[in-house]
Design goal:
InterPro entries: DUF6212. Pfam families: DUF6212. The structure is a single chain. By secondary structure, this protein is mostly beta strands. It has one domain: Jelly Rolls, CATH 2.60.120. Helix content is 0%, strand content 39%. The chain contains no helices and 11 strands. Strands 1, 3, 4, 6, 9 and 11 form a 6-stranded antiparallel β-sheet that branches. It has a 5-stranded antiparallel β-sheet with strand order 2-5-10-7-8, with no helix packed on it. The protein starts with 24 loop residues before the first strand and ends in a 7-residue tail after the last strand. 41% of the residues are buried.
Length: 180
């Protein structure tokens, strides 16, 4: 999956969520561990946070100004699935374009210095729009307990006011296996 790059907002097109295949397992955010910040926040500017938002049944990330934020959902039991996908929402119409991604790591393997290596491709999501982010689950993690990573960044120079990234509908699926 490729990352969409926006030169200007005038060139931006809405990202229509795509059907990503048969989902074998869906987990609602309320059934997952609460997110914890994983990023090194020592140089963050502006407001940032993460939490489970009960009223929306979503994991919430608010990225800082000019930095990427990552939160971890610790110790999620992964079945024998090969892919994870998450519906994401740039919730505020008056917010910035958001760049969002999902990742997966062995329990405790991702930390503030290496989390980027566990995260998949970022998708730019326009204010008020939805998209799907996904990541292949490495075979050595299938069937294990893992940490799920969620990541967000406010894109452009307009700051991070109302940068509400919501991660909903966590889905796990198997790649089609062809036999010869």
């Amino acid at each position: 999956m490729s990352v969409i790059s926006l030169k200007t907002l005038a060139n931006a097109e809405a990202i229509v969520p795509r059907y990503t295949g048969s989902t074998d397992l869906r987990l609602r955010p309320r059934d997952l561990p609460a997110p914890e910040l994983l990023s090194d926040v020592s140089e963050f500017r502006g407001y940032f946070s993460t939490d489970y938002w009960e009223a929306e049944d979503a994991m919430f990330l608010h990225p800082p100004v000019e930095s990427t934020i990552c939160a971890v959902l610790r110790g999620v039991k992964i079945g024998d699935y090969s892919d994870i996908s998450v519906s994401v929402h740039a919730q505020r119409l008056d917010g910035p374009v958001l760049s969002l991604a999902i990742g997966i790591a062995k329990v405790g393997a991702a930390d503030s210095t290496n989390w980027q290596s566990h995260v998949g491709a970022y998708r730019h999501v326009l204010p008020g729009r939805w998209a799907v982010v996904n990541k292949s689950i490495p075979s050595q993690l299938q069937g294990k307990q893992c940490d799920i990573l969620i990541s967000a960044q406010a894109v452009g120079r307009q700051g991070n006011d109302n940068a509400w990234a919501l991660f909903r509908r966590f889905g796990f699926s198997m790649q089609d296996q062809k036999t010869s």
